Amino acid sequence: MKAIWKETKSAIKEKVPDHCFRMWIEPIEFIKAKEDKIVLSCPNLFSKKRVFEHYSAMIKSELTRAAGRECKLCIEVSKQNGASKPKPVYNRQLLLPNFNTRLYNGRILCKDFTFDQFVVGGNNDFAYTAALSLASRKNPQQNSLFLLSKTGMGKSHLSQAVGHFVLSEHPLDRVYYITAEDFANEMINSFRNNTISEFKKKYRNGCDVLLLEDVHYLTGKERTQIELALILDTLFEAGKKLIFSSCYLPSEIPKLNDKLLSRLSCGLISNIDPPNFRTRVRILEKKAGTSGYKIPKEITEYLASELSDNVRQLESGLIGVAVKSSLLGAPINLDLAESVVKNIIRQRSNITIDVIKKIVCKYYGISVRDLVSRSRKQNIVRPRQIAIYLSRRYTDQPLQVIGRNFNRYHATALYAIGAVERGLKENGSLQKHVDFFCQKLESGKY
């Protein structure tokens, strides 16, 4: 049967992408065979789950063809990889149940952002495989990954999943999960407090895994870029693991110094695309199951067909349907789902940069000519920044085109978007203004 399994692997290799074969099929080992049953082993639970869900039918089919008779398949976790050995006990405080994971430094990992909870489809298969490979240290040469996608596609989920996996397998590893903005602010504070040497020591000598989100916010921060590049040099040389994420390729981030650009670009860069219909259905089913919602299949498929922008929009639709049903005591049916969706869905075909300009100008009582002028008056700058932010959010135009529409370079447009995003976290008044414009645009009532 060993020869049959070898023949089966060769056949599967011809049918799946190389990176999928190397990650999932190649590590599978033949254990034993008894009558019409063959037992195979995977290196860990993640691998077993993935192989069972996505490749078991193919494996059965090829085994049957190679053996000349139908074979039953059993997949186990390899005992040689430590499944039969008790893990060493460390003198460390246990985490309370249902609490998010606190890291050595930076933000808290969301407890649901694990590999198990990530729905894999054709849009993100390679990114998932690359992230899991880096986390499990399967490829010693791979120590850097750059996740690229628009907002709401799952790059934060994958980044944090790496942190969860590393901490579960190597509890004493020091995992830092931060945003580029957090890093910049921490460095500025260390200069102000005369603790820059401690700051450098912490990152250069006290970090095993660095998860750095939203690196495009480093644009124009020259001193921060220099220090980060030096830190990354040290971590690279020490073989530490690094995950970066951004909405833009490193080469598209304006005002990025050459050394940092080189460091961000030298690892594997993986794009995450919008999910297709099948994947959107599976995401909704996964989220509903995790949250305990009972959603009829026709409603799940309706939401998946109407809400196609990103994963966050899908979640918003799912929660909206469940909550509205609960509050009204009404059944979850198409009428209820339609009432939720119409408040979420964006009329993208009708929303243009010119439409956004007119709405913003009308609200603030300024002219379009003022909006695109070189004026630095605050009563012009803030509306301009909001209009640029909305243009990025509601249109598919690249940053360069958006910038040109406002008589600005794309670096200035990126700064404006960042300024509004930061303001939304701190300024309730700004949040109300942006919410007002979003409601206007999404309702189609211009």
Nutshell version of this structure?
The chain has 446 residues and is an alpha/beta fold. It has 20 helices and 9 strands.
Give a written overview of the molecule.
The chain has 4 domains: 2-81, 2-Layer Sandwich (GMP Synthetase, Chain A, domain 3); 106-271, P-loop containing nucleotide triphosphate hydrolases (Rossmann fold), CATH 3.40.50; 277-341, Helicase, Ruva Protein, domain 3; 353-443, Orthogonal Bundle (Chromosomal Replication Initiator Protein Dnaa, Chain: A), CATH 1.10.1750. The protein has 446 residues and is of the alpha/beta class. Strands 4-6-7-8-5-9 form a 6-stranded parallel β-sheet. It has a 3-stranded mixed β-sheet with strand order 1-2-3. The termini are far apart. The chain has helices at residues 2-13, 18-25, 45-54, 56-67, 125-136, 155-169, 180-192, 196-205, 222-237, 258-265, 277-291, 297-306, 311-328, 334-341, 353-364, 368-371, 378-394, 399-405, 410-426, 428-443, and strands at residues 29-34, 37-42, 72-77, 105-106, 144-148, 175-179, 209-213, 241-246, 268-271. It is globular and about 80 Å long. It is built from 20 helices and 9 strands. Helix content is 54%, strand content 10%.
Provide mean pLDDT, rounded: 85
N- to C-terminal separation? 69 Å
Shape: globular
**Residue share in helices?**
40-55%
Strand order of the largest sheet: 4-6-7-8-5-9
Count of DSSP-assigned helices = 20
The topology string of helices and strands comes to HHEEHHEEHEHEHHEHEHEHHHHHHHHHH
- C-alpha Rg, in Å? 25 Å
Give the DSSP E fraction (strand runs of 2 or more residues): 5-15%
User: Which CATH class of the largest domain?
Assistant: Alpha Beta
Kindly report the CATH topology of the largest domain.
Rossmann fold
Q: Could you tell me the number of beta strands? A: 9
CATH architecture of the largest domain: 3-Layer(aba) Sandwich
Q: How many domains comprise the coordinates?
A: 4
Q: Note poorly predicted spans.
A: 81-104
Return the structural class.
alpha/beta
- Note the main sheet: 6 strands, parallel
CATH H-level homologous superfamily name of the largest domain: P-loop containing nucleotide triphosphate hydrolases
